Amino acid sequence: MKPTHALEVERLSLQRGGRTVISSVSFDLDRGERIAIVGPNGAGKTTLMRALAGLEPGYSGSVRVDGAEVRGLSPRQVSKQVGLVPQRMPHLPPFTVEEFLNVSGSTRLAEAYGLVDGLEQRLLPQLSGGELQRVLIVGAIVQGASILLLDEPTASLDPVGRRLVEDLLGRCHAELGLSCVMVTHDISLAVRNSGRMIIMAGGAVTWSGPVQDPALPERLEEGYGCRFLRVEHELFMSPLVVPA
């Protein structure tokens, strides 16, 4: 029988050069759940994502995927369960999207082509920022990943690109039932696309709770050091949470 949680993180800590980068972080990710991790620069968010993907094996504590400790899995085994999508990909091979997806894996290819919406014959270096981010997300899916780790998926994208990526994330959840951990500075994006938020500062979790918690603006203020407001508007299904 499969474990209850898709991902279990218990007292995860990591040091570099004698400095603590991550300090005793614990949380669980249920199957199909979406969690947003937010916090100021230097909070340890990206390092945490790398540890969850098996790229930081020097941690103490535990990271388990489907009940298996990540340190005990090969990189190939991890990639078939966890797909890390970085903020940027500096060196793009001159592949078409179709070639890239075929190289990335063989799982859910038919569904993957539907998710890239006619981009199959476009070359990766010719894609816009939003198009490329969508392709990288779908590339993680065809590896077989049931958990997506997204590091700033909408950073540096224009409004159209952000909307395309956000729509894709909604489809990944609704149509494929994927679990997702997303690091972002876009608090309203986090509120719209996650059920739970984790706030980090100084390498540690300072708060964790539902994105609809009335205390969220105050907890964000504690983490970032600036004021936040919850804004309700009839055009939006969920509230906006913005710095004041």
Write the SSE topology.
Elements: E1 5-16, E2 19-30, E3 34-38, H1 45-52, E4 60-65, E5 68-69, H2 75-79, E6 82-85, H3 97-104, H4 109-115, H5 129-142, E7 147-151, H6 159-176, E8 179-183, H7 187-193, E9 196-201, E10 204-210, H8 216-224, E11 228-231, E12 240-243
Parallel strand pairs: 3-8, 3-9, 6-7, 7-8
Antiparallel strand pairs: 1-2, 1-4, 4-5, 9-10, 11-12
Task: Report on this structure.
31% of the residues lie in helices and 30% in strands. It contains eight helices and twelve strands. A six-stranded mixed beta sheet has the order 6-7-8-3-9-10, with helices on both faces. It has a four-stranded antiparallel beta sheet with strand order 2-1-4-5, with helices on one face. The chain has a two-stranded antiparallel sheet with strand order 11-12. A hairpin with a 2-residue loop joins strand 4 (60-65) and strand 5 (68-69). Helix 3 (97-104) runs parallel beside helix 5 (129-142) and helix 5 (129-142) packs parallel to helix 6 (159-176). The termini are far apart.
Give a concise summary.
This protein is α/β, with parallel strands linked by helices. It has helices at about 45-50, 75-80, 95-105, 110-115, 130-140, 160-175, 185-195, 215-225; strands spanning about 5-15, 20-30, 35-40, 60-65, 70, 80-85, 145-150, 180-185, 195-200, 205-210, 230, 240-244. Strand 1 (about 5-15) and strand 2 form a beta hairpin.
